[in-house]
Amino acid sequence: MKRNLLLLPAVIFFGLRVTAQVIDKSGKQNASVDYKRLALVDSVINDYVKKDWVKGVVTIVIKDNQLVQYKGYGVQDIDTKKPMPNDAIFRIMSQTKAIASIGLMMLWEKGKFQLDEPIADFIPEFKNPVVLDKFNAADTTYTTVPAKRDITFRDLLTHTSGIDYAAIGSDEMRAIYAKAGIPSGLGKMNMSLLDAIKLLAKQPLKFSPGEQWQYGLNTDVVGCLAEVISGTNLEDYLRENLFEPLGMNDTYFNLPQAKGSRLAQVYTEDDNHQIIKWSHTFRGIDPDYPLMQKTFFSGGAGLSSTAYDYAVFLQMLLNKGKYNGKQILAPRTVEIILSGQLKDGMFGDNNFGLGFQITSQKSAAKEPVNEGSFAWGGYYGTTYWADPKANLVCLLMTQHTPNSHGDLADKFKTLVYASLK
């Protein structure tokens, strides 16, 4: 009996440690948050809704592993007038990139590849890449020169491979990709992921790998590599190794029909900047794509999720790779992922890690977030950041682009930091 009593403090301590790794949803107040100041988030967002600058928003704030704010504002759908629930499901578009990047880094931890290894070792079509030299806009013909080196895994994860975007890239590369039939990675694709990436590999690069930063289809290649290396499709791989262990039960490439009623409506603006519903043909993206069965799993833009699910993913990284007693990534791996990988000036005032924008000291002097914070967002108006110094995870989710009042995300950030004691 005495021995059991001696063990009791250790058991209690261990239990508290495990509990601390999980987001606390008990509703108790956090002593380091001024809730009166935080309530200004409500008034500002409600004002945007009242002025019809935005139709629906969800925000979440987690401080010290504790849920301090999680709300829906406005409506989920302008036709039904259904109030926006905080567990609405959003098309997170480029927020998919961080998840796919983490999925690939989990394979790196298992010794499956090296970061500076050529990706051609796994997808041979990428061997001996060429770089665009001269381009004729009249007929889209072009000449090339050999690239200085092959594309590596690190190049893809930092967007320095020379690969551009098919939908939002430079005029020259968009024309080349369109002529070759390269899919945009947005919405529903009508070919297999591997076939699309092999086709992409045959196109010229915008520059030699490592020379510049260029947002592009890099993370779609990351997702394809995860499939090739793991031997399973990206959806199943992420489900088994990331979503299920973290309890991310509302994150999908193929959203179940049973959850379709929670999918937020997508909006755009007319010529007078009035908000209208996104049509099924606008910009070639059917907004119902999350509910369409797909086999092309875009690591760059394919997922739908909730604010809470994504917050759990970010909290795992703040917890140095651990959540709910499960070590998803080693602490040192997380440190590498969240370290700037680029030379000064390659990404403006900030830096870029292995899948995330990293706030630099110079940038932190100009905005509320602390140096070392990591962030990104999605095409339809979702945005997130996590601040290790403040132990803070925040997301603001909308489905509205272009947005004449996109400054709401910056105001949200200011209001959150102003509420911290």
From TrEMBL:
Q: What does the UniProt keyword field contain?
A: Signal
Segments passing through the bilayer: none
Q: Which InterPro entries match?
A: Beta-lactam-related, Beta-lactam/transpept-like, Diverse_Enzym_Activities
Q: Which SUPFAM superfamilies match?
A: beta-lactamase/transpeptidase-like
Keyword flag Ligase? no
Q: What is this protein called?
A: Beta-lactamase family protein
**What is one Pfam family matched by this protein?**
Beta-lactamase
Record bears the keyword Translocase: no
Q: Where would one find the signal peptide in this protein?
A: 1-20
Domain Beta-lactamase-related, first and last residues per copy: 41-408
